Amino acid sequence: MNALTGAYVPGSSPLHRLPAGAKLAGLAVACTALVLLGSPLALAGAGVVVVALYALSRVGVAAAWAQVRPVRWFAVALFGMQLLFAGLDGAVSTTLRVVLAVALAGLVTLTTRTAAMMRALERCLSPARFVGLDPFRLSLLLSLTVRSVPVVAALAARVGEAQRARGVERSVRAFAVPLVVGALRHADALGEALSARGFDDL
Amino acid sequence: MRKQRGFAMRTLARVAVFAALIAVLGLPGSLNVFGNAVPITLQTMGVMLAGAVLGSWRAALAVVVLLVLVAAGLPLLAGGRGGLGVFTGPSAGYLVGWVAGAAVTGWLVERGGRDPGLVRLIVACLVGGVGVIYLFGIPVQALVTGISLRRAAWLSLIFLPGDVIKAVLASLVARGTQRAYPDAVPAVHQERLRSGGGR
């Protein structure tokens, strides 16, 4: 998974071709349905549907596993705990519900380009224009943030090196204060530059 | 000075850079606390710092921006997590709680005026960065995993000591930042913006 391309797996399946907004809405409906499904049998059926959807998307087993992997230990712990307190039925359905919800959300992530998803989310956030965040400012804010991540990461690396040279690498405070001050200085210089170029009046 | 049409660019830049700062504090290898032995994520510390430095609604917006990028699929959460999966998983409530937590931290710091003391910063970080985040996180965790609210609260106690330490660290860092850079106090920054924004 590349830092700034996300987890998107290129493809031309029906799932890839669906608009991002439709996939988001579908995910919301599916997750609600998962909460409402009670019996292990119904949830097993839902599991078959999810596996079929993954097969339809042809993203590959490795990409699918990468989406579910973060909750694997949590799922094991949850299953054990529920087995103790709620019996086998409860353990199976609760664990399935969590894993399936994560897998479905992962499927949307895998089949949607980051840019397309960002556009869909921007549309969801469009009511923000009533508090002064019009579409131009909203997308500038999002892209400025994406651009700032490597800048702040480079700043963090520089501060870390300086702290090592001074021999205070174990102190969080000695690391974070220069980092936050540096980030603020960068932010204020950036804001001033944008303002000086007349972006405030757009 | 003319009336602003929307967000001032200075505000926009601060919100964007702090959203990025929260992301960077969660990057693997960017920061090792106590050598390499304890892999602690400082991402919630970033949330509290955003509150203490940006003030309530700017901090909340910075967290929202970060979460939108995460939802879009960028791996910006601690451990390189990202995508929609984190919002349907068991810790989704904590992520949503970040928004309210940053806002409450900022609100409490703003009440401190031009010179919020260390005690106020510590209280703000504990209430906003630990209390409010748990208030959102625990019920959602109970709902997703189907356990009782009481048991979910007990389970979350494992994380409490670490989070309290992070809150205290965040307030120390905020205090140091505000001493080195007075404009890092929300009230001072507001005053300067109102007085025409010039230096």
TrEMBL record, chain A:
This is Cobalt transporter. It comes from the Bacteria. InterPro entries: ABC/ECF_trnsptr_transmembrane. GO terms for cellular component: plasma membrane. Its main location: membrane. It comes from [Actinomadura] parvosata subsp. kistnae. Keywords: Membrane, Transmembrane, Transmembrane helix. The chain crosses the membrane at residues 44-65, 71-91, 98-116. It is found in: Membrane. It is a multi-pass membrane protein.
TrEMBL record, chain B:
It comes from the Bacteria. GO terms for molecular function: biotin transmembrane transporter activity. GO terms for cellular component: plasma membrane. Keywords: Cell membrane, Membrane, Transmembrane, Transmembrane helix, Transport. It is found in: Cell membrane. Its main location: membrane. It is a multi-pass membrane protein. The chain crosses the membrane at residues 12-31, 61-79, 91-109, 121-140, 152-174. Belongs to the BioY family. This is Biotin transporter. It comes from [Actinomadura] parvosata subsp. kistnae.
